Amino acid sequence: MNIESKVRNRALAGKLGAACLLSAALNAAAADDWKNPVLDKYPTAAVATSGISVGDNYVTVGQLHSISGTMAISETGSVEAERLAIKQINDMGGVLGRKIKIIQEDGASDWPTFAEKAKKLLVQDKVASVFGCWTSASRKAVLPIFEKENGMLYYPTFYEGLEASKNVIYTGQEATQQILWGLDWAYAQGCRTFYLIGSDYIWPRTSNKIARRHIEEHLKGCKVVGEDYYPLGHTSFGSLINKVKLKKPDCIYSIVVGGSNVSWYKQLHAAGITGESLAKKNKLLLTISTTEDEILGIGGENCEGFYACMKYFQSLGNENNVKFVEAFKDMWGDDSVIGDVTQAAYLGPWLWKATVEKAGSFDIDNVATASEDVEFTGAPEGYVRIADNHHLWSKARIGKMLKNGQFEMIAESDELIEPNPFPEGYK
Amino acid sequence: MQGFAGLSQFSVFLLMALGLAIIFGQMKVINMAHGEFLTAGAYTTVVISDLVTKYCPSLLPYYFIFAIIMAFVVAFLLGYLVEFMLVRHLYHRALDTLLATWGVSMIMQQGFRFIFGGREDSAILPEWLMGSWSPTDTIDIPLNGLFLLGTSIVMTLLVAFLMHRSRWGLNVRATVQNREMANAVGINTKKVDRVTFALGCGIAGIAGAVFTTIGSVSPAAGSLYIVDTFIVVVFGGAGSLLGTVLAAFSIAQSQSILEFFLSGVLAKVWVLAIVVGILMIKPQGLIANRVRK
After folding, report:
1. Which of A141, A408, B12, B203 is the most exposed place for a label (fewest CB within 10 A)?
2. Is the model's pLDDT at A317 over the cut of 60?
């Protein structure tokens, strides 16, 4: 598994570069030779009135992720998924008969750079839409610019909520669709005591705040027996594991991120806390921060039998997903791994296409208004619909980690869950 | 059980600090790249682990010992090179060694990123290092923790022997005390410096190899440890091996005990506050070198 991950790393850089060149060539060809069949129905003067970059044969969009710096590895999956979606849309004839041209900018894992590049994309390139960002910090940095310059951002990461904007479509799940549903599931499994663990920054702290409220006020007879944070990159969890052993929580609720994950699961395993040993005592470990991508580094044998609450797993068996995984591997290599956020990024271009076609216009104001109730039946996660608060109606799922680094889905919500970024009483 | 959490933290600190205690304590070189030599050792282990998995999986149970030795060799050679190209021009200018080695650390970090990519990586552990030893039902002592402890004890004894019982250690101490005089009596001080520096780096490499059993490897992994390590060395009294051991022990134990009763973040704050407090009273650290003035 380690070898695979490294082969992938080294291949990625090359592949991305090649893909950029390739798509640039495709775009150029598209703009020149493409005979637009729907021009009569959608003349450019009518579908783009506000000066955004739309021609008779093309429409320009921006892609704003970190290609370099510490976040590059996480965001690479999103870049790949968005490019796959755009390629597929172009192969189908584009949006309103116009092929999509991509202008890619690198946020370089640096929030001021994100802001600067967002401004460049909106003011100078006048793109019709931007797909990008990953961390909440980068989103917060570009948000005022998107609102001031009236742009449209499709943001793919699951996040802490407490935000909604006319200029952003959130294609990942917000807190209530992940945290509350996951905790309810744990409750149904018989968990009554919870130990909250997180890395020390905004997302885990806010998420645990919401989790604590839910446990203490909404789950009957439940309580939080401990809450602990460790700095990003922390590697010794010995004392924490002892505390957990002492408090004997029914549910270890973990939001450890990044490299700390590896130490955390390795040391849990070494201390005798495994999926198997917990299951024997009717206890469990539930995480909202570990996806297929992280397990690649942790090693499946260290986290086998633990649970994660996500809306998407690579192993989902529905028809859309089978096709998606196949297309993704075709484009980006057989050893690629697809995590929750990668799938959410894939939704962005498709939802934008559907919205533009519904609005019959590329103009941001029209797209923003038309977004409500736009649906995407081809979503790998099944089916999604945009709510009036610009978040998605989507399902929540529980996956059990397997030794091979994949998840086995063992539970999913019956209905689509309504997104609620400002849950009552959690603010 | 909790005592063991402290012990394993202690062995982490000690193993990290050993190399630095030699370089900083004996040579007065502030080696900011110490963490990167550790990372070099860790990556050596990962590469060897991958090669073994790919080409001869049957050797998996034994490769780790070999990986430790290779980690030492790689870090030793890198250290030798850095000393030769950079550090030797900067003796007598302690602050400049800080800047120069800081630069080296950044170059090495980017180098790792370039070669291995930015993703967290980890070595495949041999079976005998996984799991735990449970004398009773409630006690689980992690085997990798025991291994860590064992390694750091062996390494400390080795270093102590080298410094205080061998001819070479005598040369090092002589060079540190009075370079001109040491030169005059026929000690090749340049060579002593180079090997001392390289040895410190090599020990960091060993630490890196051993740390793959408890954590992940990434280009910035070393920088996570460097602050703690300097605190241990300075707190112990630079140059004193016994002081380093004492400092590592007291910091590790107090941190893990505080972590147990307070939160993880708060524990760190308290430990640092206590260290600063003690250093204000004893600026030379716990055990000061007796120096003739």
Report:
1. A408
2. yes
Confirm whether A236 is domain-assigned.
yes
pLDDT digits (tens, 9 = 90+) for B215-248: 778 888 888 788 888 888 888 887 788 888 999 9
Q: Do B121 and A272 touch (CB under 8 A)?
A: no
Cβ count near A345 (within 10 Å): 30
All residues of chain B having their beta carbon less than 8 Å from the beta carbon of residue A12 are 117
- Name the residue type at position A424: E
A368, amino acid identity: A
Task: Confirm if A2 and B49 have CB atoms less than 8 A apart.
Answer: yes
Helix/strand number for chain A, H first, E second: 16, 15
In terms of domains, do A36 and A79 share one? yes
Residue A427 lies in a domain: no
pLDDT in tens, A157-173: 998 888 999 999 999 99
Q: Which residues have C-beta within 8 Å of that of residue B227, sequence separation ≥ 6?
A: none
The answer, for A205 touching chain B at a CB cutoff of 8 Å, is no
DSSP letter, residue A291: -
The C-alpha angle A190, A226, A229, rounded to 5 degrees, equals: 125
> CA torsion sign, A90 to A96 to A98 to A101?
negative
Judged against a pLDDT cut of 70, whether residue A7 lies above it is answered with no
Q: Are residues A22 and A169 in the same domain?
A: yes
pLDDT of residue B290: 62
Question: Is A20 domain-assigned?
Answer: yes
Contacts for A149-152 with beta carbons within 8 Å, 24 or more apart?
A149/A119, A149/A122, A149/A123, A150/A50, A150/A122, A150/A364, A150/A365, A151/A118, A151/A121, A151/A122, A151/A127, A151/A364, A152/A128, A152/A352, A152/A364, A152/A367, A152/A368
A21/A17 Cα distance (integer angstroms)? 6
Q: Is A147 exposed, middle or buried (0-12, 13-18, 19+ CB in 10 A)?
A: middle
A215 & A249 share domain: yes
Number of domains in chain A: 2
Residue A62 bridge partners (DSSP): A103, A130
- Asked if A129 and A243 sit in the same domain, the reply is no
What is the torsional sign of CA A266, A268, A273, A278? negative
CATH code, A286: 3.40.50.2300
pTM score, whole prediction? 0.80
**Inter-chain CB proximity A238 and B120 less than 8 Å:** no
- Give the three-state DSSP class for A288: coil
Instruction: Report d(CA A242, CA A25) in Å as an integer.
Output: 58
Phi, then psi, of B261 in degrees rounded to 5 = -95, -30
Q: Residue A294: which domain range?
A: 175-310+397-412
Residue with the larger pLDDT of the pair A325 and A232? A325
Amino acid at A269: H
One domain for residues A160 and A200: no
Strand pairing report for A58-65 and A307-310? unpaired
The pLDDT of residue B176: 81
In a shared domain, residues A305 and A406:
yes
Query: Which chain A residues are closer than 8 Å to B130 by Cβ?
Result: 269-270
Is residue A419 in a domain?
A: no
- Whether B49 sits inside 8 A of A296 (CB atoms) is no
